[in-house]
Amino acid sequence: MIGFIGGGNMAEAMVKGITQSGMKDIMVSEPRSERCGYLEKTYNVKTTSDNKEVVKNCSIVILAVKPQNMDDVTADIAGSITDDKIIVSIAAGITLSYLSSRLKTSKIIRVMPNTPALVQEGMSVLSLCECIKDKEMSMIRGIFSSIGRVMVLPEKYMDAVTAVSGSGPAFIALFAEKMTDAGVHAGLSQGNASELAIQTLIGTARLLETGMTPAKLREMVTSPGGTTAAGLKVFEDKGLKEMVDAVIQAAANRSKELGRA
Fold this sequence. Notes:
By secondary structure, the chain is of the alpha/beta class. The protein has helices spanning 9-20, 33-43, 51-57, 70-77, 96-103, 134-145, 158-166, 168-185, 190-209, 214-221, 227-237, 240-258; strands at 2-5, 26-29, 46-48, 60-63, 86-89, 108-112, 122-128, 148-152.
């Protein structure tokens, strides 16, 4: 059985993906009774308000709580962890060493998913110890593949991952928002500007998904002395490269600050 401690948006996205991929036997621990009722009715899962009940009944336990709640949650379940349990944490900044010291087990996988998991288009990056067996890893991959793509990287890259793919949806959403605002300023209606901006982002992503590099796509769209060239020159003059570098570095640094070793 797969268990979740925490029944928020990311847990729901995973439950949705798991159930749609055909996996069953899911239990969710969630303190809000109305949320439990919703999850039971929508996804036909078992719910409880007792974290230890999830640990007792499930071979894979996914910690889907906020980082600031991790001290309390690990203290609550530590005594119930046995050698046959695989612990998966999706809390930003919470390190493998922190979890191992708190839960007295090394069978832990740290994951950084992102918000597009809500529509099964997520990017999940996994870090783990060598003690995880291939069969166990295959099961975990299956869970996260149900909500998008999966990558495995050493834990030392997790702060950069958090900045690029964890925080990235907010950065891209901000660009879409400002592109829409600029379209309105140029004379479009709000609805038309929004549709143009969003579909352009979606279509561009699909093109890049074919393997075309961003540089090649930019080259295809840009004619010498044309409208795109005029716009790109403003990005260059305003220091877009330096700004994006600073944004990613700020997010990565904050991830390090929030992390618990």
